[in-house]
Design a protein that fits this description.
The protein is mainly β. It folds into 2 domains: about 5-95, Ribosomal Protein L25, Chain P; about 100-180, Beta Complex (RNA Polymerase Alpha Subunit, Chain A, domain 2), CATH 2.170.120.20. It contains 3 helices and 13 strands. The protein has helices at about 15-25, 50, 115; strands at about 5-10, 25-35, 40-45, 60-65, 70-80, 85-95, 100-110, 120-125, 125-130, 140-145, 155, 165, 175-180. The two termini are about 30 Å apart.
Length: about 210
């Protein structure tokens, strides 16, 4: 998974007055959890643009002025309710030998036969939660919709990978092709391997 570096300065004071002064100076107060003790630091608000305002998933390298570095992921972020300015960011520290749970975006590829015949593709899941060692976290999860016909669903079991584990039930629907007024019947086409053909043949989906 690609990584973004956040350059920060360790915070000596974490009180309300100091926090307000940081924000007035264009800095964002942050906390890194998951280690022996929380690490309080601040970073320029512009440093978060590539991390926050993107659908892509990234890990983070937190580089402090004192020379310390930490590998982490974004855990939580708070925005101002009116201005949408970043108020506070929480990170969680990564360790090479400890699995981490993270939301990974789904990339849909291919040309569905059902869509070609007038069906409508519904993307039920635009991201999926996975658990893996940091080195095995994927940048994205690829979902091939090519075999999907009208009325068919792509289940999460089709996307299983030995490198990570999905934190969803096996009957989770990733996407499906629904019938529309302009669709034509494609039920005579052959089934493709890897796609659960119909709702009757597959486990009941939880949407």
């Amino acid at each position: 998974m690609k990584s973004i570096t956040i350059n920060g300065s360790q915070r000596e004071s974490v009180g309300k007055k100091a926090t307000k002064a940081l924000r007035n100076a264009g800095q964002v107060p942050c906390v890194l959890y998951g280690g022996d003790k929380p690490v309080h630091f601040s970073a320029a608000e512009l440093a978060f643009s590539k991390l926050v305002y993107t659908p892509n998933a990234h890990t983070v390298v937190i580089a402090l002025e004192n020379g310390e570095t930490f590998n982490a992921i974004l855990q939580d972020i708070q925005f101002h309710p009116v201005t949408d300015k970043i108020l506070h960011v929480d990170f969680y520290q990564l360790f090479e030998d400890k699995e981490i749970t993270m939301d990974i975006p789904v990339i849909f590829v291919g040309n569905s036969r059902g869509v070609k015949n007038g069906g409508v593709l519904r993307k039920n899941r635009r991201s999926l939660r996975v658990k893996a060692l940091p080195a095995n976290l994927p940048d994205f999860i690829e979902a091939d919709i090519t075999p999907l016909r009208i009325g068919h669903k792509l289940y999460i079991t089709t996307l299983e990978n030995d490198a990570f584990k999905f934190m969803h039930p096996d009957n989770t629907v990733v996407c499906q092709v629904r019938r529309s007024r302009t669709s034509v019947d494609d039920s005579d086409d052959e089934d493709e391997d890897g796609v659960e053909a119909t709702a009757a043949e597959a486990p009941a989906a939880t949407e």
